[in-house]
Amino acid sequence: MRENPNYNEIYYQHTTSHSQVIDILTEQVIPLSELEGPMDWERFFGNTYPVEIEIGSGKGRFLLEASKRHPQVNYIGVERAQKYVEVTRERFEKHIRHFSVDRTSGTFSNVRLVRTDANYFLTRYVPETSVQAYHIYFPDPWPRKRQRKRRIFRNRDFLEALTRTLNSGDGRLYIVTDHAEYFQEIQERLAGLSVLRPMDASLRPDSDITTHYEAKYVLEGRAIYRAVYEKAAS
Ligand SMILES: C[S@@+](CC[C@H](N)C(=O)[O-])C[C@H]1O[C@@H](n2cnc3c(N)ncnc32)[C@H](O)[C@@H]1O
User: Fold this and answer.
1) Of 21, 138, 155, 162, which is best to mutate to test ligand 1, by the most ligand atoms within 8 angstroms of its C-beta?
2) Is the pTM of this model over 0.90?
3) 51 lies in which domain range?
């Protein structure tokens, strides 16, 4: 397998100049540059609940359902595409209106959306051993040969940050994809990280919460591949 270059500062500057942190409930928007990394989750969320991060949260379907189901878990959706960030905000807004969610009830006070590149966020802002779970659902497979270097699981900085920031002992990584060849590559790359142990994928909690892509591909009858990893105790 060919290794690929790590992302560099120019790349970050190019892709992250409009990075923002969005509080879904209060609609407060803060430029990410105003926050200092590594972040203090307790200060950020105002509680000590565990933190779970969805990388490439897309249209926000998982983020909404999971954060509603687990009010005592803090969720961060990291999404770099502005259009999907907008779709996610609208999804929450519609839900709040439709179900007359009381904005003072605490519902959705556990969600933040971060519009930025996941590599940038993980390497600079996420503290060591501070994440209970990462959710990576339908990561872009970049199927064309010359584009495969863009695959997030090929990025060494990303893999280093992912394993460093997961909680030791019980931190989990959940992966779902429809792309058999990329799934194989992900498994091979993660097998090289001794700190991660593969688990029985059928044990993934909340597997009934489907993302936009999962719902679409299941309808099309595509095969879906799932993996769960746990970070070993240090
Ligand atoms: C194929 S979509 C899957 C979306 C969602 N997880 C789902 O299953 O419906 C991949 C998403 O990841 C986002 N994405 C890809 N690379 C990213 C990165 N480095 N940082 C943040 N978001 C990223 C894309 O913008 C896109 O929304």
Assistant:
1) 138
2) yes
3) 9-216
Cα 160 to Cα 57, 105, 199, distances in angstroms: 21, 38, 20
Q: Measured in angstroms, how far is the CA atom of residue 78 from the centroid of ligand 1?
A: 8
Does residue 224 lie within any of the structural domains?
A: no
Active-site annotation holds for 178: no
pLDDT digit string (tens) for 37-48?
Answer: 999 999 999 999
How many domains are contained in the chain? 1
Q: Provide the CATH number for the domain around residue 91.
A: 3.40.50.150
In a domain, 100, yes or no: yes
**Contact indicator for 51, 76 with CB cutoff of 8 Å:** yes
**Which of the residues 40, 117, 140, 178 is marked catalytic?**
140
Domain assignment present for residue 234? The answer is no
pLDDT at 5: 43
Q: Quick check: 190 and 229 in contact, CB under 8 A?
A: yes
